[in-house]
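Summary for the lay section of the report: proteins are chains of building blocks that fold into shapes. Here we show the chain for Putative HTH-type transcriptional regulator yhjB and then a coded description of the shape we predicted for it.
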Amino acid sequence: MQLAQKVIIADDHPLFRAALKQAVMQAVPGVEIVEADSLSAVQGAAEQHVDADLILLDIHMPGAHGFSGLVFLRGQHPGVPVIVVSGSEEPHVMKRAMDYGASGFIPKSSPLEVISEAITQVLEGEEWLPQEISSVADLPEEDYKFASALASLTPQQFRVLTMLTEGLLNKQIAYELSVSEATIKAHVTAILRKLGVHSRTQAVIAAQRLGVEPVKTDGM
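The coded shape description reads as follows.
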């Protein structure tokens, strides 16, 4: 007997989660749905439900910090396809999502029938986009390298990096994660090594490159 497919819906807006749930049930009869309202919640759901068939990920929800959540999920769970669901509909945002490992991109303005079609297509092993994006430039090589380094972080290291980007001090991070300040210092040291940077500031600046609107550099 074939097991029911399992889909994780990650969005912090209850009404839109409900709409996605309806679209999923329309596309996959008998589906099991797991809901998450933050990046930490979807991380936990993905770790608990390792047999998930698909993740629908809002890149604007709490803790996601642009494409960093997508990159980390793809690194931790490479066998689970991710469809990015976003209010940003610009072609360059779609292209970056696909370059960072998404299997599809669904604008939040899409009707339920289109969302269901996208879910079906990705579950069948294909990619789905609402429009052609081949004319959009590829990511710079350094962004690919950073994404690969970010994906190598452990879940706890990723949480610490996320808190660093929010401006929290080691003492504050230790309190939030209920660990010692020495443990956080060790995590920060490991993060800097893996990301190939020499300071917390450099780590934060590098992580900001994964924002939905990329950080502009000189000459851009």
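Put simply, here is one thing we learned. Confidence is low (pLDDT under 50) at residues 214-220.
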